[in-house]
Amino acid sequence: MASLATPPAAASISAEEARFFGALAEDWWNPRGSSAMLHRITPLRSQLVRDAAVAHFGRDARSRQPLAGLTALDIGCGAGLMTEPLARMGASATGIDAAPENIAAASAHASAAGLAIRYQAIAVEDLAATGQRFDLITCLEVVEHVAGRDSFFAALAGLLAPGGLAILSTPNRTAASWAVLIGGAEMLLRSIPRGAHDWQRFMTPAELTEALANAGLTVTDTQGLSWRPGKGFVLGTDVSVNYFLTAVAPAA
C-alpha cells in the first residue's frame, strides 16, 4: 500500500519515518507479516505492563480487568497491537500515531473486535496542548523513531497524570543490537522490514533515563528483553539488545 496521507507536523515527528510505517499499515495485524516480531513479543509486553500497573496502582493481580477505572495512552500505537490489550485489561484506552494509515487500520481492527478505543493521528505535543492527562502511558519501540526528542519527552511527561506510570521500550545502542536487529533481523532473516531502524538513533538506558529525568520523570525499573534458545523472548537483566524502562511522575 502506498502511503499518501500527510503525517501531523510537530518537532517530534519525522515525516519520513511516519510514511515508512504508514506504508505497512495493511499488514500490521498479519502475525506472519512485516510486524511478525511485534506479534511475538506482545504477550510479554502485555504481562510486563500488567504487572507494573498492578504494583504501581495497587490493583488485584487476579482480576481479569486490573486496569479498570484507569486512563491509558499508547504513544506510537501503530495499528493497536498494545492498545487493544490495554483496553481488554479494562483501561479507558487512547492510541496515537504519526501515520494516519496506522490509525485507520487500528480503528477498523478495534471496531471489528468490539473494543471502544479512541484513536487519533496526532503528535504528542498537540495532544499535550489539550490539557489531557493519563494515568498510564505506554511508548513501545517508538523513541528510536522520534525526531525532536526534547519536545517529545516534555510532551510525554506533560500527558502523564500526577503519580502516573510510564512504560517505554527501545533498542540499546550496542554492537549486539546492531547485530541482532539490523544485521540479523533486517538484512539476513528479513523478519523486520529493511530500513526500519537507524542504529545511530538508538538510546542507551542511561541516556533515556537522563532524558526522562530532564522532563521531570523518575525511572523506577529497568528490564532487558532478550531471546533464549528453548525459551524464546524473555525479560531479565540483559539490556544489550532491547530494554524496558518504567518511570513515574511526581505526585500532586
The assigned CATH architecture is: 3-Layer(aba) Sandwich
Average residue-wise pLDDT: 89
Order of neighbouring strands in the sheet with most strands:
3-2-1-4-5-8-6-7
The helix tally amounts to 8
Cα-atom Rg, whole angstroms?
17 Å
Distance between the termini: 46 Å
The percentage of residues in β strands lies in: 15-25%
Structural class: alpha/beta
Q: How is the CATH topology named?
A: Rossmann fold
Give the biggest beta sheet: 8 strands, mixed
Could you give me the name of the CATH homologous superfamily? Answer: Vaccinia Virus protein VP39
**In sequence order, what are the helices and strands, one letter per element?**
HHEHEHEHEHEHHEEE
How many domains? The number is 1
In total, the number of strands is 8
CATH uppermost class: Alpha Beta
Question: Would you write up a description of this structure?
Answer:
With 252 residues, the protein is α/β, with parallel strands linked by helices. It has one domain (15-171, 199-248): Vaccinia Virus protein VP39 (Rossmann fold, 3-Layer(aba) Sandwich), CATH 3.40.50.150. Helix content is 36%, strand content 22%. The protein has helices spanning 15-22, 36-57, 83-88, 100-113, 124-129, 149-159, 175-188, 205-214, and strands at 71-75, 92-96, 118-120, 134-140, 160-171, 218-228, 232-236, 242-248. It has an eight-stranded mixed sheet with strand order 3-2-1-4-5-8-6-7. Strand 4, helix 6 and strand 5 form a beta-alpha-beta unit. The radius of gyration is 17 Å and the shape is globular. The relative contact order is 0.14.
